């Protein structure tokens, strides 16, 4: 083992990794796990031309640079599908700017002529005892899921039809509206791939505190088990406890049929902590399907929002065939939705 002395660009997910040794010898013998930390050389610039650093600054990448990042899986219908390799692997891809690396398996056709940024594993970051460092729960204590909500807060779940249906924007403007009550409002992004843009946006919209899975060290939550996600949920709730929130707006990434989102929605213990479901959709048909699908698994939708609300015509289509109220982002921000959210309600349809 040797100590790194040259400059390394650290990614955001590795923010809590301070002291380490560089072990070059196990590159061809160690099979990585999600969250394992490595030092990588930039070989060829592709999709990712920057990484997000612990300060949340975007650092430009140049061929020959060295970065500290963590192995991860990624599910992003608009970008990449990628995985932690199942054997020792030297050449990899950047999956996400926040520090997720792995091997790309597929990509959206919009990226047909854009290759991922290629990297080479130089060595693993290890502790003094030789163990490979891992970002997951490196600093935050893992809490076993108990279904406890800090301060008995009202929890509003923001889900949607797809990756870009408007979940984050709806959640952010809902936070802004809820803040007009003078209450404490917090935000959780429970699943996704490490990048701080969403929680930063919600914070800028007035949230008293925002957290996401990367605060517990997860570079990504794709292919986590149900128990891992439930424990993560409880752990993030613990980070919110000091502010005694009155409302917690929580977002789950991707669409409602995505693997992790789907089994959380179907989990009775998880849903017992949820008071309202806000569904975002890209068009009227997606709104109808979302309402029908959620009703089919026993869940009621409190409100519709999302990209389709940019069109008055689409709003009319939804209102003509659904009794679920529709809110534009302006209406969310102006607190039109607050009367619906002030009372806890069973989400079971």
Would you kindly provide a written description of the structure presented here, covering whatever features stand out?
The chain has 349 residues and is α/β, with parallel strands linked by helices. It has helices at 167-179, 197-204, 226-240, 259-265, 268-271, 284-296, 312-321, 329-333, 338-341; strands spanning 9-10, 21-23, 37-44, 50-52, 58-60, 66-71, 74-75, 80-83, 91-96, 100-107, 118-126, 154-160, 185-189, 209-212, 247-255, 276-280, 303-305. The strands form three sheets. It has a six-stranded parallel β-sheet with strand order 14-13-15-12-16-17, sandwiched between helices. Strands 3-6-10-9-11 form a five-stranded mixed barrel. It is globular.
SSE blueprint and pairings:
Blueprint: E1 9-10, E2 21-23, E3 37-44, E4 50-52, E5 58-60, E6 66-71, E7 74-75, E8 80-83, E9 91-96, E10 100-107, E11 118-126, E12 154-160, H1 167-179, E13 185-189, H2 197-204, E14 209-212, H3 226-240, E15 247-255, H4 259-265, H5 268-271, E16 276-280, H6 284-296, E17 303-305, H7 312-321, H8 329-333, H9 338-341
Parallel strand pairs: 1-6, 6-10, 12-15, 12-16, 13-14, 13-15, 16-17
Antiparallel strand pairs: 2-11, 3-6, 3-11, 4-5, 7-8, 8-10, 9-10, 9-11
Helix pairs in contact: 1-2, 6-7
The number of helical runs is: 9
Strand tally:
17
How would you sum up the global shape? globular
Share in β-strands: 15-25%
Evaluate the radius of gyration.
Answer: 21 Å
Largest sheet: 6 strands, parallel
Mean pLDDT: 95
SSE series: EEEEEEEEEEEEHEHEHEHHEHEHHH
Query: Helix coverage percent of residues?
Result: 10-25%
Arrangement of strands in the largest sheet = 14-13-15-12-16-17
The first-to-last residue Cα distance is 58 Å
Class computed from helices, strands and strand pairing: alpha/beta
User: What is the quaternary state of this protein?
Assistant: single chain
């Amino acid at each position: 083992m040797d100590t790194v002395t040259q400059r390394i660009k650290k990614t955001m997910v590795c923010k809590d990794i301070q002291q380490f040794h560089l072990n070059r010898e196990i590159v061809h013998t160690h099979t990585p796990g999600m969250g394992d930390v490595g030092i990588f050389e930039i070989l060829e610039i592709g999709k990712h031309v920057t990484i997000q650093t612990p300060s949340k600054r975007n650092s430009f990448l140049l061929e020959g640079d060295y970065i500290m990042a963590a192995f991860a899986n990624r599910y992003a219908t608009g970008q990449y599908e990628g995985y932690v390799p199942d054997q020792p692997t030297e050449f990899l891809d950047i999956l996400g700017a926040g520090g997720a690396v792995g091997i790309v398996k597929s990509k959206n056709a919009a990226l047909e002529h854009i290759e991922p940024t290629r990297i080479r594993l130089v060595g693993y970051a290890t502790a003094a005892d030789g163990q490979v460092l891992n970002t997951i729960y490196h600093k935050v204590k893992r809490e076993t899921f108990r279904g406890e909500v800090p301060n008995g807060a009202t929890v509003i779940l923001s889900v949607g039809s797809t990756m870009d249906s408007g979940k984050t924007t709806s959640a952010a403007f809902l936070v802004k509206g809820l803040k007009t009550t003078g209450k404490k409002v917090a935000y959780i992004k429970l699943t996704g791939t490490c990048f701080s843009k969403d929680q930063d946006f919600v914070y800028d919209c007035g949230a008293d505190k925002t957290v996401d899975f990367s605060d517990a060290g997860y570079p990504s939550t794709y292919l986590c088990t149900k128990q891992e996600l439930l424990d993560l949920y409880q752990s993030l709730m613990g980070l919110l406890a000091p502010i005694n929130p009155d409302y917690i707006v929580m977002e789950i990434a991707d669409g409602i049929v995505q693997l992790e989102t789907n089994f959380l929605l179907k989990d009775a213990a998880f849903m017992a902590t949820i008071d309202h479901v806000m569904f975002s959709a890209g068009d009227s048909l997606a709104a109808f399907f979302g309402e029908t699908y959620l009703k089919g698994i026993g869940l009621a939708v409190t409100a519709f929002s999302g990209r389709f609300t940019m069109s008055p015509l689409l709003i009319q289509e939804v209102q003509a065939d659904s009794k679920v109220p529709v809110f534009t982002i302006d209406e969310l921000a102006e607190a039109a939705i607050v009367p619906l959210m002030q009372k806890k309600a069973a989400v079971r349809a």
